[in-house]
Amino acid sequence: MKFGKSICVLNVGGTRYAFTREVIRDFPLRRVSRLHACATEKEVLELCDDYDRDRNEFFFDRHAQAFVFIMLYVRSGKLRFVPGVCELSFYTEMLYWGLESAHLDSCCQKRLDERMSDIGLDTLSEGDIVLSGDEPQTPDESAPPIALTGRAKWLEKMRKTFEEPNSSIAAQLLASVSVIFVIISMIMLCASTLPDWDTAKRNTVEEHRIVEAVCIGWFTAECIVRFLLARDKWDFIRHPLNIIDVIAITPYYVTMAMARAGMPGAGLGVAGVILRVLRMMRVFWLMKLARHFLGLQTLGLTLRRCYREMVMLLVFVCVAMAIYSALAQLLEHGLDLGAQNQDYASIPAAAWWVIISMTTVGYGDVYPVTIGGRVLGGMCVVSGIVLLALPITFIYHSFVQCYHELRMRSARYARSLSTEMLQ
């Protein structure tokens, strides 16, 4: 419509903001920018709650404090929840103004995912939340993130391609190729332990070397590119999966260096042992699959969040093992009542029996023969079941929560990917 004045006023919950026409036209919030394209006052009232033509003022009956934080995002590019405001209420305000959960900082995205999971909204998409007076958002109308230069936008797109397998079609293709190389590497590693492998390797030595070199070259190039694209190089170095990548890649180059130094054989004493150990370390390539599979990501996130419970479980087991192993050694060997059970000649030897009994494995290679030892064995098994069950509840709930969070994040990427394919 033809604005009466060059200055437009937004009145959000009683707080007034003044902007020029040009700012309104290019405003990052979709609802506000659409005001500039309105041809009639009726179209304006579809976007706001009231309009004062004389003062050129647009009224929005929305949460004023939430809009303050949204304006901070417009200015600084960082969107966080309002302290003391429900996450879902703020999320509703975000959707009203044309923002998505992807605009939130990662810490706030986690809080939103947890909140939606708690109330059973983990299977709903953001498009399922319908706001009164608002139209469905199309991909072309989505609010853009903070403007980036051409080079910065390209670097960010490349970073997402390598770090977030579900962020685009190219990222999915790249992840698929990486998984194929991991599978090929694992097949070769397993086959190298077969009795007939040395004969087959001598017959096709060049083919084996080429396949191994190609796999290592891919992993090395992928690791270097991800390091160059990382926002924070120090955080990249400290990340556990990146450390595993380096551990898995390094043995190949160490092996090649040792071979060039004249130590290629496996029967060269210490050097041969080192070579065999380094070759077997390639099994860590399997950990690369954690980047692409939700189950492994859930397991890793659960272990990281439940380290206190895991330490508590370890303490329980160690204390019980120390008590029962000392008593078992005393009853089976230390009292010297008749024949001594040599399997319990020392406390460390008895500790092996305690740990397999507490975990209810019971290999049967070590067992008590005295009446007191058998009674102690029954107590050991029962107490092991109780001690192991105590922290399991906390770990289980954390696992479920982590799974819901990662599944919602994956669903967000899937929706973004669908939008990209439609465009």
Automatic annotation (TrEMBL):
Q: Which InterPro entries match?
A: BTB/POZ_dom, Ion_trans_dom, K_chnl_volt-dep_Kv, K_chnl_volt-dep_Kv5/Kv9, SKP1/BTB/POZ_sf, T1-type_BTB, VG_K_chnl, Volt_channel_dom_sf
Q: Which domain of life is it from?
A: Eukaryota
**Gene Ontology cellular component terms for the protein in this record:** voltage-gated potassium channel complex
Query: Per the record's keyword annotation, is Transport included, yes or no?
Result: yes
SMART domains cross-referenced by the UniProt entry: BTB
Query: What are the recorded Gene Ontology BP terms?
Result: action potential; protein homooligomerization
Topology relative to the lipid bilayer, per the entry, is: Multi-pass membrane protein
Q: Does the keyword Kinase apply?
A: no
| Subcellular location(s) of the protein | Cell membrane
Q: GO molecular function terms here? A: delayed rectifier potassium channel activity
Q: What is this protein called?
A: Potassium voltage-gated channel subfamily G member 3
Q: Which organism is it from?
A: Oryzias melastigma
